[in-house]
Every structure is written in C-alpha cells, then in structure tokens.
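Help: why these numbers?

___
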Amino acid sequence: MKGRWAARLALLTGAAALVVLVLFGGFASLLLMLVGWAGLLVTGAGVWWMLTHTGWIRVLAGLLVVAAPLAVLVLYTSAGLLWVVLVSAALWVLAVAAGRAALAGDRPHGMPEHQTARPERPFLVMNPRSGGGKVGRFHLAERARALGAEVFVLDPEQPRDVTELARQAVRDGADLLGVAGGDGTQALVAAVAVEHGLPFLVISAGTRNHFAMDLGLDRKDPSTCLDALTDGVELHVDLGYLHAGGPPDRTPGRVFVNSASFGVYAEVVQSPAYRDDKVRTILEMLPELLTHDSGARLNVRAGDITLDGPQAVLISNNPYQRGDTAGLGRRERLDSGELGVLGVEVGGAGDAADLLVRGGQGRGLTEFTTREIVVDADVPEIPVGVDGEALTLATPVHCRLAPGALRVRVPRHRPGVPRSAPPMDWRRVRTLALTMGRVAAGHRSR
C-alpha cells in the first residue's frame, strides 16, 4: 500500500515540476533547460581540464568550473525566472525521492542469521594503533579477557605476522578468531578462519571500519562487538580472493573483505610522496595517469565484457550501493554471491561532461556484477589497493568470489545496515503505481 502511494506521489510531483516550468516559464522554459544543460556540460569539461593539466591551464579551468554555474544563476535571475527553476527543481527532487522510496519497499533486506554455540576458546588479535588508539581508549583487551578470550596485543615496535599468529592459535585449540584493527588485518585473519572452518569476530576498532559497517556493527563503540562472545549469531558472508600472476588453481590467493582498486588510485597511494602531502601528490600525478602518459594500461575481462584502457577499476566483495549519497561506500548485503565491478574510462572533456550530466548512466562509467574477473596490463606488475593496503601484484590478476565462505559472529543486538534506496527508474515507478492499484482492487472485489 505504501509503495503504491509513494509511486503515485512520484508521478504527481514529477508532472507538477514540468507543469510549473512550462506554465510560468512559457517558451523561455525551453531556453532555461538548454542553458542549465549547457552549464553542466561546460562545468564537466572544466573539471576534466583541471585534472589533466597543470599551470595556467589548470587555473583557468578552475575558474571556468566556478564561473559556469554562476553565469547560469545570473541568467535565471535576470530573466525573473529563478523562483520557477527553484520550485520546479524542488518538486523534481521530491518526485525522485518518492519514486526511490516506492522501489525500495519490495526489496529483500538483511542477511539470514544462524544460531550457534558460544565459543569456548576465542583468540583475538588487537592493534593498539588502529583508529587512533581505540583498543586502549575502550579497554578492549581487558574486556575481552574478562569474557574468557585470549588476547594478543600487537607491539608497534616489533611487527608480527598476524597470519602466523592466527594459525598458531588454531593449533593451540582456538575455536574462534577475531581482530580489533583495520580492514587489511581483518582480511588476513579471516583467511585463516576460512581455512579451518572457524567463526570470525570483527571488532570495529579501525579508522573507517567499512567491513564492520556493512555487517551492521556499532562503529562508535567497538566494545559492543564483544557482546558476540556471549550472545551472538552467525552471518555467512562472501569473501573475495586475488590470485596474482596466474589462475586460481595455480597461485595462492590474497583475501579481501571490502575491495581491490586498480589504476589511478592505486598508482597514487603508492607514491613515496603521498603520505607527506596527499593533495599535492594527487594533483601532480593525475594529469599523466588520466591521459595514459604514465602508469600501466589496464585490460579487464569478465565473460563477454571487456574494458580496454580504463583509468580506474574497483572490484568489491558484493556491489556497493550508488543510489543515494548516504549509500555511497555501503553494501546492503554481503551474501549476494557476486563481485561488484565499477570501471571508469574518460577519454576527454566530452566524456567528463557526459558523466557529470548523466551520472551513473554516463558513457565513461561501466558497472556490472560477476563471479570472476581478470585484470591484466601491459606491464608485468601493477599497484593494487587491497582493503586500504598498498600492494604490488604480478599480472594478470584473477579475482574471484567464494560465496558464504566466512562465518562472522556478530552480536544478536546491533544497529544493523540501513536500507538504501535504489536508483530511480520511472518505468518501474509507473508500473508500480498502476499495477498495484489494480491488484488491490481485485482483492477487494473478492
């Protein structure tokens, strides 16, 4: 019922937005739309020139990016039609929000929970530097030991192989492995848990905690994650693997819980100057990387899909939501059984402008899902960003997904993953508004 009325509201307010524009703007409304689109195109081109040039060209391009939208606003104001544009835009925003809310109503939400016995000998690895010292600030080691867990706190002055620590714990009888640290460390210990069929505990003590966020854990207070030791359930989530230099049956795999990035971003973060001055390093390296004057030229293959020369490729353990601003960087599920792939290939100012105007439908953006994918290049090794860690891997890099491979133990009571609305689809909204009404009427007639 709610979905039907939300869809009807979307159609009504969408039509109202057009009516306001035409009724109060008249013939000038067509010019308004053309001027607005032209402003977006010029802004997009300016962004591209700013990123791919240095010196005075970059300065002039930056001025163009600022001047283009301001010029559009001045023209609207001088014509006395600014209020028309604002009212029409507000109605359109309301229409899109209502339509996406209607489409979100019938989507499955949440991952199945599995009841399991409480672990008897949990083993936890904790990084005291992660998240600005969350391990010490929230007294995680002391609280975990009070709950019966064996805790190994890493010493920053004496680096240890966390993979070997986890394997030794398994040999000593551990029946659960866990990590309080960043996503890169989470992935390494999770791989050992999968090897031995053990449950895995995620403690949100890292900086960004993307994996914890998509598991629905509390990122503000990591101590709540320890509740899973006494009152928890299991989620069976997918796990990504990278195989460098050959197919999966011939090379060992590197696990990733979030994503692996190839291309521009991976090249930039491996620069020695990146840690000292991130912004300056990015601005200096982008021109040559975006125009393929430096860096590896990538080739991506997944079934019948081929991307030749994309500037950036993101391969994620389950697809990220891109429907709204709140959904950026979030995965609503971790058990879909599919890798998410996002490729960016911008050939010039025209592609950049098209991407700005059309967003996710732009010709420079390719998005799809797959179970396996191969990333090759014209060089024997390429930089790869894996769960925030900068690595160099031999080509080709084979990426695959292991569905339901990781048993993650989470607290029974946790914040959960917010539902994100899907991208707008006017055809589906129209069908939902009309079809559901007829179905409801048929039920009442019985």
